Amino acid sequence: MRHRVKKHRIGRYGSHRRATLRNLAREIIKHGSILTTTAKAKAVQSFFEKLMTKAIKAKKADKKEVSVALRREIFKAIGDRRLVNKLVDEIAPKFLERPGGYTAIYKVGPRRGDGAEMSLIKLVEEE
After folding, report:
1. How far apart are CA 32 and CA 15, in angstroms?
2. Threshold 0.85, pTM exceeds
3. Least CB-packed of 5, 8, 55, 72 within 10 Å?
4. What pLDDT, in 10s, does the model give residues 34-66?
C-alpha cells in the first residue's frame, strides 16, 4: 500500500534523487526549458513549482528579512547564489499574478537508444 507516499522515486535512492532534482531545477532556471524523461519531468515539476512559489513570495515581500529568509530557503534547495538571484529578480516578476502552474510538460516521443518516453519541461509564457 502506498498510503502517505507522495514523492516520485525515479529509480534512485534519497541523496541521488535530491541531487538529480537539484540539477534539473538549475537547468530550468538557466535555460528556461530542458529535455528529459517524462518521469523526471513530473518529479522536477513539483520540486520547481515550490521553489517558484517561494521566489514569488520573496519578490512580493515588504520586509527585507522575509525576502532574505526565502532566498536562503531557495539557496538550500538549489545551491547557487547567482541562480537564486536570477530566479527571484528576473523570472519571478513574470509570474507575480499567476496563482500556480509555472511549468508545462510537453511529451516529445521515445528516446532513440532505449525507447524511454521523453518530455520537454519549460516555463509557461504569458499570453
Report:
1. 25
2. yes
3. 5
4. 999 999 999 999 999 999 999 999 999 999 999
**Torsion angle, alpha carbons of 105, 91, 48, 34, to 10:** 40
Please give the C-alpha separations between residue 11 and each of 15, 20, 58, 106, in angstroms, as whole numbers.
Answer: 12, 11, 33, 22
Domains, the chain, in order of start with CATH, read 14-108+117-123 (3.90.1030.10)
In this structure, are residues 108 and 35 in contact, taking their beta carbons and an 8 Å threshold?
Answer: yes
Question: Within a 13 Å sphere around the CA of 56, how many CA atoms are in the beta-carbon half?
Answer: 15
Q: Which helix (H) or strand (E) holds 104?
A: strand 103-110
Given the DSSP bridges, would you call strands 33-37 and 117-123 parallel, antiparallel or unpaired? antiparallel
* 15 vs 111: CA distance, rounded Å: 26
Residues (pLDDT < 70) of the chain are: 126-127
